[in-house]
């Protein structure tokens, strides 16, 4: 199970699952695969009407969003975002990384009926981005990973807010109110986690799990996207027990949940049309993901670094150089998981546009992956040369000092 905790393995599984889904959907197996994806597994007695694909995106993916929420809470309380001074630069960079892609998408789709897709290129896939960094830049300075992690966590927060605000339609206030009550009950029950052992401890865990499932159901019935329930549960649980739950769930989310979602989301038939016949949605996403993230994160991050320059030289060494910031910006262009989800939510009434949007997310993310891999590899080589030069300089200084001491002797 430790394999599925690896950022490299997680990124590899995500990419492999997406490629497999895309390939199988365009082979003779395609019609059967798509029929399974669209087959409904309803529970009419309790008002659940979901296809297999929606059970994956609304149900299984809730586990991923729970993990995201707990990681966000940890970073805000104990991690790299627990003070304003630590969070301000990556926060401004993250905002730039949302506004620029959204703006580019809006410009390309201006005057069309596809404006609702602006959130699609604003997301960053934290697992994939960290995985690419781990594969190609394992020996790079820790400040790059720290900044990327902070940026991606804040980006996830924005994505959660976008889903909650812009992809909520026809809310049922009764179920929404009951969902809030269930979240409060989860908060109260969570106070007992870790305080008792034996049967009482097991009972506390069972109660919290049951309340979490009830919260998911009520939020789904309310019209709010069901993954928001998982976010709420992750935020209200005590951090200690929640982190233990994440540790248990991590191999499941990395090894099962995310690959299944990537496979299902990427299982689309490639449109048999010329490039000129593709909708503006396709081109907007393909351009906005890599280019928008590059422009937004680099400019906003550079400006913020200069405005909030740390007066302490020791801490100032943790500031990213321009090249490092550009590299992080390209890693931020890997939208993937959350972008695929937003694509489904934005165009759920048009299967053809969903398919084009999916292909655009995959292509835009692939461009970001390739460019980021090149940049990370270049940074790694430059860092290795600096270390070798520093070691040679230190060795030369030591030899010179020894010779001087021998002469005096």
From TrEMBL:
<feature type="transmembrane region" description="Helical">
    <location>
        <begin position="84"/>
        <end position="108"/>
    </location>
</feature>
<dbReference type="InterPro" id="IPR023171">
    <property type="entry name" value="Na/H_antiporter_dom_sf"/>
</dbReference>
<feature type="transmembrane region" description="Helical">
    <location>
        <begin position="281"/>
        <end position="304"/>
    </location>
</feature>
<keyword id="KW-1133">Transmembrane helix</keyword>
<keyword id="KW-0472">Membrane</keyword>
<keyword id="KW-0812">Transmembrane</keyword>
<feature type="transmembrane region" description="Helical">
    <location>
        <begin position="120"/>
        <end position="140"/>
    </location>
</feature>
<feature type="transmembrane region" description="Helical">
    <location>
        <begin position="52"/>
        <end position="72"/>
    </location>
</feature>
<feature type="transmembrane region" description="Helical">
    <location>
        <begin position="224"/>
        <end position="240"/>
    </location>
</feature>
<feature type="transmembrane region" description="Helical">
    <location>
        <begin position="200"/>
        <end position="218"/>
    </location>
</feature>
<feature type="transmembrane region" description="Helical">
    <location>
        <begin position="252"/>
        <end position="275"/>
    </location>
</feature>
<feature type="transmembrane region" description="Helical">
    <location>
        <begin position="173"/>
        <end position="193"/>
    </location>
</feature>
<dbReference type="Pfam" id="PF06965">
    <property type="entry name" value="Na_H_antiport_1"/>
</dbReference>
<comment type="function">
    <text>Na(+)/H(+) antiporter that extrudes sodium in exchange for external protons.</text>
</comment>
<feature type="transmembrane region" description="Helical">
    <location>
        <begin position="359"/>
        <end position="379"/>
    </location>
</feature>
<dbReference type="InterPro" id="IPR004670">
    <property type="entry name" value="NhaA"/>
</dbReference>
<keyword id="KW-1003">Cell membrane</keyword>
<comment type="similarity">
    <text>Belongs to the NhaA Na(+)/H(+) (TC 2.A.33) antiporter family.</text>
</comment>
<keyword id="KW-0406">Ion transport</keyword>
<keyword id="KW-0739">Sodium transport</keyword>
<keyword id="KW-0813">Transport</keyword>
<feature type="transmembrane region" description="Helical">
    <location>
        <begin position="325"/>
        <end position="347"/>
    </location>
</feature>
<keyword id="KW-0915">Sodium</keyword>
<feature type="transmembrane region" description="Helical">
    <location>
        <begin position="147"/>
        <end position="167"/>
    </location>
</feature>
<keyword id="KW-0050">Antiport</keyword>
<protein>
    <recommendedName>
        <fullName>Na(+)/H(+) antiporter NhaA</fullName>
    </recommendedName>
</protein>
């Amino acid at each position: 199970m430790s394999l599925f905790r690896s950022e490299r393995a997680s990124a590899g599984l995500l990419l492999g699952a997406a490629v497999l889904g895309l390939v199988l959907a365009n082979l003779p197996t395609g019609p059967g695969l798509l029929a399974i994806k669209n087959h409904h597994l309803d529970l009419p007695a309790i008002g659940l009407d979901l296809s297999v694909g929606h059970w994956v995106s609304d149900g299984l993916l809730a586990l991923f969003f729970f993990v995201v929420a707990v990681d966000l809470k940890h970073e805000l309380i104990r991690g790299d975002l627990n003070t304003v001074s630590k969070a301000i630069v990556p926060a401004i960079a993250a905002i730039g990384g949302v506004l620029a892609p959204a703006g580019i998408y809006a410009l390309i789709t201006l005057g069309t009926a596809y404006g609702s897709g602006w959130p699609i290129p604003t997301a960053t896939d934290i697992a994939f981005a960290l995985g690419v960094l781990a594969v190609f830049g394992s020996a790079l300075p820790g400040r790059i990973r720290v900044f990327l992690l902070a940026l991606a966590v804040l980006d996830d927060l924005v994505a959660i807010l976008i889903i909650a605000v812009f992809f909520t339609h026809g809310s049922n206030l009764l179920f929404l109110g009951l969902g809030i009550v269930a979240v409060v009950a989860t908060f109260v029950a969570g106070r007992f986690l870790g305080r008792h052992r034996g049967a009482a401890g097991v009972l506390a865990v069972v109660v919290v799990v049951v309340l979490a499932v009830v919260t998911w159901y009520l939020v789904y019935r309310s019209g709010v996207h069901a993954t928001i329930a998982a976010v709420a549960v992750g935020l209200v649980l005590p951090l200690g027990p929640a982190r233990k739950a994440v540790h248990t769930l991590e191999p499941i989310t990395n090894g099962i949940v995310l690959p299944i979602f990537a496979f299902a989301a990427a299982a689309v038939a490639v449109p048999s049309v010329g490039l000129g016949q593709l909708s503006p949605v396709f081109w907007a996403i393909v351009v906005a993901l890599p280019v928008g993230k590059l422009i937004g994160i680099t400019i906003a991050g550079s400006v913020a670094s200069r405005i909030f320059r740390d007066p302490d030289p020791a801490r100032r060494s943790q500031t990213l150089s321009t090249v490092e910031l550009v590299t992080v910006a390209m890693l931020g262009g890997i939208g993937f998981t959350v972008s695929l989800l937003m694509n489904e939510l934005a165009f759920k009434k048009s299967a053809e546009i969903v398919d084009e949007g999916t292909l655009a997310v995959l292509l835009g993310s692939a461009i970001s992956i390739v460019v980021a891999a090149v940049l990370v590899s270049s940074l790694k080589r430059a860092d290795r040369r600096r270390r070798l030069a520093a070691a040679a300089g230190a060795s030369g200084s030591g030899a010179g000092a020894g010779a001087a001491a021998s002469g005096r002797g």
